[in-house]
Design a protein that fits this description.
Helix 1 (about 10-20) packs across helix 3. Strand 9 and strand 10 (about 260-265) form a beta hairpin. The protein is globular and about 50 Å long. It has helices spanning about 10-20, 40-50, 60-75, 155-165, 180-190, 200-205, 215-230; strands at about 1-5, 30-40, 85-95, 105-115, 120-130, 135-145, 175, 235-240, 250-255, 260-265, 270-280. It is built from 7 helices and 11 strands. The chain has 2 domains: about 1-145, Roll (Thiol Ester Dehydrase, Chain A), CATH 3.10.129; about 155-280, Roll (Thiol Ester Dehydrase, Chain A), CATH 3.10.129.10.
């Protein structure tokens, strides 16, 4: 059942997160909220255009525009995990038609699935945007509440990755990342998670240092690829692979002549994100 709600304030979302009733993963129930006639904050629109390009031409902007609504939905759910501990694994964008961010948008956010896996608890959140009664974009995000002590095992994907690495071309673009970059993106996106901004707190969470927001890297990669081809893709998938600790250098490379790209460390040993863009159905 979908609940029609207004756009909650941050304090109200935090209050829901602290007071909500948690349930076992086996007793999970999907939850959906809908916000009608939503208008994106003008500062976010102008800030994103200054940092990357016009939001109408960047499907990934939908994540920033709806980030608070996603948190609003999850904060009212019965999942057993803490919101602060969730790791962003994937963000997929299915584009039906171009979004006009100056027009009102009806947004539905659904926490659709929760399951226990070897890695930990996996959650799927689907955000659907509609304008004039028609779907413009669907953003599907996967989050992980990592199990304590879990260590990835070798699998057949490693062989595929090695083969892809052999086919990597020269860097398409490169950028320098710093704590200043993280703070600029936090103010733009509204994501002030301390693991991105405060070295001391990041280490308290078990990290060696702060890391850049994964979606910042996603925006950067998509923007650079669109410079090569101005056509908006119909399907876009971002996989977040390894944390990009700060300060750092990142290099965008293409896998041969494919529609796949990776954002790598300077030595090529660490891939921070993998981007796949499809223009066909």
């Amino acid at each position: 059942m979908t609940q029609i709600q207004s756009n909650y304030s941050i304090p109200r979302i935090i209050a829901h997160a602290l007071l909500r009733n948690k349930a076992r993963i086996e007793d999970f129930k999907p939850s959906c909220i809908e916000i009608k006639g939503y208008f994106c904050d003008s500062k976010k629109l102008s800030g994103f255009e200054q940092a990357f390009r016009h939001p109408d031409d960047m499907p990934t902007f939908a994540f920033i525009a709806t980030f608070r609504l996603v948190m609003q939905c999850i904060s009212q759910s019965n999942i057993p995990s803490k919101l602060m501990g969730l790791i962003h694994l994937q963000s997929g964008f299915d584009i039906s038609r171009k979004q006009n961010w100056l027009a009102p948008t009806d947004i539905t956010v659904c926490l659709e699935n929760a399951e226990q896996t070897e890695k930990g608890k996996l959650y799927t959140v689907v955000t659907t945007l509609k304008q004039s009664g028609e779907i413009t974009l669907v953003n599907t995000n996967t989050f992980l509440d990592k199990a304590r002590g879990y260590k990835p095992k070798a699998n057949t994907d490693e062989a595929v990755e090695k083969q892809e690495s052999i086919e990597l071309g020269k860097p398409i673009a490169q950028l320098a990342l710093s704590l200043k970059t993280a703070w600029q993106y936090a103010r733009l996106s509204g994501d002030f998670n301390p693991i991105h901004l405060h070295p001391w707190l990041a280490r308290k969470f078990g990290l060696k240092d702060v890391l850049i927001h994964g979606m910042f890297n996603a925006h950067y990669a998509v923007n650079e690829v669109l410079k090569l081809s101005q056509e908006l893709p119909k399907h876009l998938l971002v996989s977040f692979n390894k944390p990009c600790f700060l300060p750092n250098q990142a290099y965008l490379r293409q896998y041969g002549d494919t529609n796949k790209y990776g954002l790598f460390s300077i030595d090529g040993n660490d891939r921070f994100i993998k981007l796949t863009m499809n223009d066909t159905e």
